[in-house]
Amino acid sequence: MNGARARRVGRLSYAFISTDLAQQVTCPPLPAPANGKVTACQVSINDVCSFDCDNGYILSPSNQQRKCQPDGSWTGSDVTCLPCGQNTYKAGPGQCTRCPADTHTTGTASMLVGCICNDGLTGPGGGPCQDVNECSRQNGGCEQSCENTRGGFQCKCSIPGYKVNPADRKRCIVEKQCSSFTTPTNGGIVCHHKNDTNTDRCQVKCNDGFEHPVRSNQFEECGPATNFKWSYEINNIPIPACVEQYFPGVIVDAEIAYFVASCDQLTDQQKQDAKNAFLQLLRGQGVCLENGRAVCNVTDLWIECGEIDLSGGIQKRDASSSRVLKFKFKLTTDQKPVRTMNCGRFCDGQAVCDACFTNHVQSTVRKVTAEQEKLREVFGTQAAPDARPNPQPRPGVSTTSGAGVAPKSFNRGITAFRSNLARNFNRVIPSTSGQSPVRPTEAVTTAAPPRGMMNIGGLVLMPAPTGLQMMSDVKMACETGMEKKRDMCVPCTPGSNLPPGGSRCEQCIAGMYQPEAQKTSCIPCPAGKTSPRGAIGCA
């Protein structure tokens, strides 16, 4: 055996290993672990090998050294490098530590610098991290408002009535909004929406030739301030329809006196018959007719017994008065709807203007004046049979009808008319001057019956000379229940009224109502019911 020697002692023998062989015993080389390395290592007996892992990895087991033993083996077991988990970093050879606050890792096997700031924060790896104000850049992409938070932001809906859209949290959707505005009949609305307050404001506009006689508000509003109800809904006052505008009609008061026997003893039937005959007489004479078409109306006809001055305006000893039957009435013209007046001829295309109104007034007054002249032709001065055909009034003497006669001729005419009637109708006509009644057997001067004379079943009515009186000047007037607005007539709408003597349509007060237009009063609600202001019914 090379390098060795043997020795026999008695029956036993011993082998001695040479010193050279003992010095040649070594341990096998140790490989570097995956994701690690051997830092210092010899393979001789008692030599120690150290290990280290790459960044983000730690040793397992945590013992970092292995020793070569005399038998040529290594102490311990194979070394493994394990990665630090998500959101942790390698703090030492065998220690993984959680990332600092507001940081995270994008994977495993990280060092401290791999702990980066969370979204919405900025700073170096491992911190510290500072907040980023996302709202400072394009409002964070929010549609309405942006609220910055640490590490993030929130989009919010700052306009009342909106909420965040759950499908896109940067946008807002409508949660509350106003109902559709009620468009009035014969009109429309002009509305404006304020985006910043989610408020609607509408103004009622009537069509040409229509108007609102009663409007408490110039505008109607709906939005957060009204809890998304229209102001007219809160006040429980519906938007009234636009009512038609009219140019006013014309009114003139007239009176015609008739001689009649025993005026105060006329029966109600005789009075009614007299009114019917009078209206028929007017139609027969063409009053308020032009080419067969009505141009005015005879209205408010009533009769009464009264006195007529027979002096012709001059007081003398032989002058006296006579009891007569007076027919009182009005000549009126209908109101004209503005939309039918073709005002564009005068108004440069506008719906209405002063020039159009003036033309209407002038035209209407001309028509009424013409009808007044017809009345004067029929009921004006009745010439006596022995008088001139067209007696002239005395200087300084005039009547409302524009005609007059001398007193003597005037009285002679009365006597002649009375005698003529007595002869023709075999009636005794009472004297008007204290003289004896004129009888049919007396010789009288025959005169043609006056144009305005009426015979009603034997009851003779003879127009008194100068018995026509125009009791008022021509005046413009609106019908009952209509308000005059800018020279036009507008009917009061349902829920309002025009009290007698009033000048403006007024809304019915609470507890009263009016379902119809053009009325002069409101109706109290039945017992147990009530109504708001301007109501058309009770509940």
TrEMBL record:
Q: Which GO terms describe its molecular function?
A: calcium ion binding
Question: Record keywords: Disulfide bond included?
Answer: yes
Q: Check the record and name the SMART domains matching this protein.
A: CCP, EGF_CA, Ephrin_rec_like
State the InterPro entries in the record.
EGF-like_Ca-bd_dom, EGF_Ca-bd_CS, NOTCH1_EGF-like, Sushi/SCR/CCP_sf, Sushi_SCR_CCP_dom, Tyr-kin_ephrin_A/B_rcpt-like
Database matches in CDD domains:
CCP, EGF_CA
| PROSITE patterns (alphabetical) | EGF_CA, SUSHI
Which stretches does the entry tag as region Disordered? 379-409
Query: Is Cell wall biogenesis/degradation given among the entry's keywords?
Result: no
What Gene3D superfamilies does this protein's entry cite? Complement Module, domain 1 (2.10.70.10), Laminin (2.10.25.10), Tumor Necrosis Factor Receptor, subunit A, domain 2 (2.10.50.10)
The record's annotation in SUPFAM superfamilies points to: Complement control module/SCR domain, EGF/Laminin
Q: Where is the Sushi domain?
A: 25-83, 176-244
The entry's keywords:
Disulfide bond, EGF-like domain, Sushi
Q: Do you know which Pfam families this protein is assigned to?
A: EGF_CA, Ephrin_rec_like, Sushi
What is the recorded name of this protein?
A: Signal peptide, CUB and EGF-like domain-containing protein 1
Its taxonomic placement starts with: Eukaryota, Metazoa, Spiralia, Lophotrochozoa, Brachiopoda
